[in-house]
Each structure stands twice: as structure tokens, then as C-alpha cells.
Amino acid sequence: MSGARAFFRKILTSPIRWLISVNSVPANVETELGINKQKPIIYLLQTESIADLVALQKSTAGLGLPNPVAPIEFLGQSHKRCYFLTRPQSLFSRKIKKTSIEDVFTNTFLLHRENPELDLQVVPVFISWGRSTGKKSSGFAQLLADRASPSWLRKFFILLFLGRDNVVSYSKAVSTKQMAELHGSNQRISQKLVRVARTHFHRKRQALTGPTLLERSTLYNSLLGSDAVKQAMLEDMRSKNISAQEARKLAISYIDEIAADYRVGLVRIGERILSKIWNKIYNGIHVGHAYRVRELAQNGHEIIYVPCHRSHMDYLLLTYVIHNEGLVTPHIAAGINLNFWPVGKIFRKGGAFFLRRSFAGNKLYSTTFREYLELLFNRGYSVKYYPEGGRSRTGRLLPPKTGMLAMTLQAALKGINRPVSIVPVYLGYEHVMEVKSYQKELKGNTKKKESPTQVFSAIRKLKNYGHGFVNFGEPIQINQFLDSNVDNWRETTPDDPNKKPAWLTPAVNQLADTIMTRINRAAALNGTALVALCLLSSKTQIMSQSELTAAISDYLELLSNVPFSGDFTLPEADAEELVETTLALKRFEQSEDEYGKMIATKEGKAVLLTYYRNNIMHVFALPSLIMAVVFNNKKTEASRVIDMVKKLYPLLKREFFMHYSLDEAVKIAEQLVEQMKTQGLLSQSEEYLMPPPSSSDSFHSAWLLSRAMQETWQRYAVVLSVLEKEKSLARTQLEKQSCVVAERLSTLYGMSSPEFYDKNVLGSFVNALRENKLLNTLDSGTLEFSEDSRALKEAIMELVWPEIAQHLEKI
């Protein structure tokens, strides 16, 4: 750097530092990118810029990386640590000027030939200002649009107005040692490195800003000009006896009702507001496996986010996290119930597009919606929709609705010009603001219609929500999914793009199930859910703090040594800290006597805790089953435990969207048994497994775990007992009678969860029985008790509390 340039950099650094704030992506470069802070690091940026250099300095200081301005020493000489591909444009020319970067790397590779032990990490760093989508318009907005190599004047305005909308995005380091070993001359290798870097930075910019925004006129022309919408309008003209102008007007009204009106400025303002809200109400937002979506975006994939749906907060939280990870925010499918003033207009400008609850009987609307979705895909917009169709009122995943998935597959079949990947997302909270209304709805209350009053009421209550969790599951690349699951799908797809192939419906159903299992596979354990699990498993719903801490510690150790999956996440804190931070949320009753602190559910509030327990119940299903078999039999052979896993796991897999195959479940069960013995949660005498002695420190943890799934076993027992008594029943009648019996048991024995007698949950179990052929299905559709049903009932009755089993026998 010349003396004059160094002087100006020194003068300008302080005011620039004051103007900017940085968002470093990822937050942990060692874990996610494999960058070794102990090895020499040099930085490669796109454009030489004092502002970019200051932003990088602030970012590296926060991440514990070397200062980019400080020189790097190797081979006894001092070298620059930061290099650039281009210089800024001049004021009067748009020509991009190259730097001498190729010569620098050529000399570096020459040094490698002479010093084979030398190994530098070249870390590409993409620095962006603002999130301009490149909308085709002129004016001041375009002056602020970040370019690859803006002039100093343009950079001044960008810095002035967008200095706090900055992303410093790091990529995986390139080893100069490995590059030097490539075939070719030093100059050719250097040219290749620079060429790859240019492409890399271009893709980074595309991932951050997304495609050019659609003008309204382009949107109308694209949709109204599609063959499918034209055909639907013709059918409306014939069936409704209306003119072409009236049909066109109706189609336009549907477009206006559906389409988003995305505005970058609103997203920028929303990000700042949400940052303040999250800091106010959450103790932290934990994000897992975000590298997956960054890699997809970097590789040019069309990304479709499919999260579980816990709360209205989901719309904001996931979009905020995606934005904060340096990616363009998605267009979001939202229910038409949210399109009310003023929220609807704000959501629409934030990227929401609205859909009706049902498309039935309105071909023009359904066709317009499908064509709009396909247009988003083809234009390169990422999209987010909820496969459950609505928010879960129980805390467990709902059976998926397949309409949006079917439209996604049909769009892919028509030929999107880049790979399409579906990203399952697990969302978890330590507090859900709607949980009280959910319980009322489960008890039969009518769902309140969304309104401005509800919004302002919810805002007033925003406080002390603990932690939020966003885990990105394993992506599903659609073409690869079809190749693996549908034979000859390319050859059997009709030439007419609007005609459904015969394999579409079963493929969509299988895809939906795969998505739900991958959502649950990426579960995040949290303090509220773990405390709820323990208290609800206790007979009196009260525990000493020491017992609660010990139980959670045992469960964390168990799942740390036998993980539920490679994608699920455990809390970073230990059990003691986790309990303390959870109690600080003031969701539990706390008292103290001379022996210590006691924790209990608040009076009348135990039912609310079932929601949080259900978020993680699938993680504890197998451990609880194993413990229940051992406790209920006092002592049992390990082979008996595995037999019970083989009998019951297919039902658990269906109900809880678990990802193991039966063989994998058996292996996991065997690993859990061994780990439980190691921890003292189980004891063994000769070939028999037994509960730990009552004097053991681990007895209470094991006993609680044996009770965790009790409501599930009781619900299974109810359905099978009703069917055994009646011998055969229509499905609807079986579900209805089972609800009556379950509600009676709930009243008599104080079950704390309305889902115990929820028709949908009972219906899910009936479906699982049919799919696993554990009852007979007659030609009329009537369900009949069978020998397999009897064997299953006998196995389940072993797990059910004796008083419940006795009551069921008397029905």
C-alpha cells in the first residue's frame, strides 16, 4: 500500500468504524468452515476498499481471527495478509480494473515448490452492503445498490445509508499447498484460483440478494398469458356465463389476493426491529446446521424451506434467521386469515403470499395459485411453506397436508432450470405465546379469528421467552428423491405438463413423510421441554431441584453417548445451569423447606407443559419404552426388551415421525441398554435386566423415564380395548368410541393433556394399525379385531398402569 493510501486509510478508519456494524457469517468459522486459527491465514476480497477493510477488521476481531491489516510472517519474510481481485471503478468509467493478484499467487506457488512444508490458508471473504435485489428502476435506490467494484463516490453513499446493513461472509479456506500440487504451471494454477474466486463471489452475491424483483405488469402478463390460466378462464366463461373481460378481471383479483409485493426496504427495517424484539424477549436464538442452506444457495439451488409450525412467531423467526445467515429472505406461504389490516399489508411487503384454506371447486383460483408458485420457482425465489397446513395445537408434528408439495413436484417436472432442494426445518421454543389458546381449542373452544386487537395484545405480552431454536435438517434434492423412490419417473411423466403422472400422489405422500421425519430428526432439546418431561412423569408433579437436576443430567449423558440422530442438538449448558435458567423464566412453582428447593407445576397449569414435552417426546420414545418394559416386569431378559421394540416401534415410527428403520431401531435400543447399564439406569444380574436399586442415585431418573410414555400406551390400550369389545367397527365409530373412553379415563385418573382424547391423535394410531396390518380391514372398510390385534394388546397391557388396565377390562 502506498504511503498516501495508507495515510488516507488511517484518517478514514475512525469515522467509517462509527458508521458500520458487521454481521459475520458464519459465527463460528472453525466449526463450520474448518478454518484453523493456528495456521497462517490470508484473506481474499473482491474489491480493494477502505470500508471493506474496516468491516473485515471489526469482523475478525469479533471472531478471534488475525487482523487483516497486520502483516503475516512466513519463510523469514513479512507479507501482506489481505489481497483483492479488483480495484474500484473510477468516477467517469465503468471499467473494472484488475489487481496484480495473479502475480502474487504465481510467486506464492513458486515458493511452495522451493518449500514443500509451507501451507497457507486462503480465506475468501465476501463483503456486502445492503440487499438490493436489482429491481429494474433508476434513481437514488440504484445509487445505493451495491456493485462488484463501486467507485469511491458510490461507496460513500452506500456506506452512509447502508453501513449498518453489512454482511461479512467467510468461505472455506483454500490450501495453497494443495493448489501448488495441481497439474500445470504456477501461472496456470494462479489463473485458475482467481477465476474460481470470481465465480465464487458472483454466486455469493446472488445468494444474498436473490433474483430481480418482478414488476407488477410482468407478473400479470406472465400469469394471465400462461396456457393453464387461459384454459381455466375459458372454463369459467362457459360455466358462469361471463365475458372474457369479466374472467380476466376475476383472475387479476386472484393474483392481487395471492401475490407478494416484496420490498427490500421493509425487510431492512424489519430486521432492525426484530433484532430489538429478540434481544428483549429471548435469551438467545440458537441456529443449527445453517451451513446446509448456505451451501445450497452457493451452488445455485432453488431452496424451499418446510418448517414445522408451532406459532405465529415462526413467520418472523425463521425469516430473520435466514436473513441473518447472509441469504435472501424467502417468499412465505401464509394463510388468508393473516391478510388483515395492518398485518396483511406488512407481511405482503415482507414476502408473504396468501392462500385460501381450500381450493375445492374453484379451478381458476387453484390454477392461478399453482402458476404463481411455479413462476416464483422459475424466477429463482426461495419459498417457505408449512407442510402441516396450520399450527400444531399439541406440540407434536401434525400429519402433513400435501397440496403445496404436489404443486412443488409438478413445477419441478415442468422443468425448473436449476436443482430444487427442500430443506426441512425444526423450530422450537421455551415459550409459545399461543399455548393457552391451543389448550382451550383442544377442549372444544372455537378458534379466535386473527385481528389487530390480537396483534397488539400479543405485543404487550412479549417478554421472558427464554431461548428459540432453529435447526436446518438434511435437504432433499427433488430429482435425487424421485430417482431413489420412483421407477422410471422420467419415462412415465406425461408430455402434457398440466397432466398428473400416475406415480405423483404416492410419491408426494412419501416425500411428505420424509420431510416430517427429517424435521423431527433435527430436534433441539431445551430446558423447558426437559423440565416439563420430568415433572409430568412424576406422580405428584413436584420434585426437589436436586432430583430434577440429576434426572436431566442423566438424560443429557444418555443422549450424548447414544445420540437420537446426527442432526438433533443438545443444550450447550450443563444440567445445573439449564435448570437455573429455565426456572428464571418463572413458568414453574418454586418453594423451599429446610431440605432444599422444590419445583412443581403451577396450579392448573400442568396441561400447558404437555405442549413443550410433546416437542421432544419422539427423542425419548425408545428410552422410555425400554425402561417401561424393565420396570413393569421387575426383571426381564434383554431379548424380551428387544422383542417389545420390534412390536411397538412401527407404531411409534408412524405416530412420532421417527427416522429409524426397524433394524436401526433395534440397534439403537441395544446401544441404549448398554449405556443405561453403564450409567446405572439399569442393573443386570446374569441374563436379566432390572431397575436400579431404590437406594441408587439413578433410581429416580430411571423411574421417571419409565413413566414418560404412559399416556401413549394408555391411548393405544383404549383403541384396542374398544375394538376387542365390539369385534368390528367402522373407523369413524372406532375413533368416536375411543374418544369417549379416553375422556372418561382422563376425568377419572387426572390425565393432564387434552390430546389424550384428541380425535386426530387417536386417528393417527388407527392409521398406524392399518398400515402395519395389525387389524383386519374388510371390503366394506370396517375394521376387525384380529389375532395380531390381540397379541399387540397383550404386549401394551404389560406397560399400562394396573388401575388403568383393570378399568379398561371392565368397559
List keywords for this structure.
811 residues, globular, Glycerol-3-phosphate (1)-acyltransferase, alpha/beta, 8-stranded mixed beta sheet, 26 strands, 7-stranded mixed beta sheet, 33 helices, 4 domains
The coarse overall form would be: globular
Distance between the termini: 89 Å
Number of domains: 4
For the residues shown, what is the average pLDDT? Answer: 89
Number of helices: 33
Q: Can you tell me the CATH topology of the largest domain?
A: Glycerol-3-phosphate (1)-acyltransferase
**CATH C-level label of the largest domain:** Alpha Beta
Largest sheet: 8 strands, mixed
The low-confidence runs, each spanning 5 or more residues with pLDDT under 50, are 135-144
Share of residues in helices: 40-55%
Polypeptide structure, described:
- This protein has 811 residues and is an alpha/beta fold.
- It folds into four domains: 3-209, no CATH class; 217-521, Glycerol-3-phosphate (1)-acyltransferase, CATH 3.40.1130; 527-707, no CATH class; 710-809, Orthogonal Bundle (Arc Repressor Mutant, subunit A).
- It is built from 33 helices and 26 strands.
- The strands form six sheets. Strands 10, 11, 12, 13, 14, 15, 16 and 17 form an eight-stranded mixed beta sheet that branches. Strands 1, 2, 5, 6, 7, 8 and 9 form a seven-stranded mixed beta sheet that branches. Strands 18-20-19 form a three-stranded antiparallel beta sheet.
- A hairpin with a 2-residue loop joins strand 3 and strand 4.
- Helix 23 (545-561) packs across helix 27 and helix 25 (606-633) packs across helix 28.
- The chain is globular, with a radius of gyration of 30 Å.
- The protein starts with a helix and ends with a helix.
- Mean pLDDT is 89; it is low at 135-144.
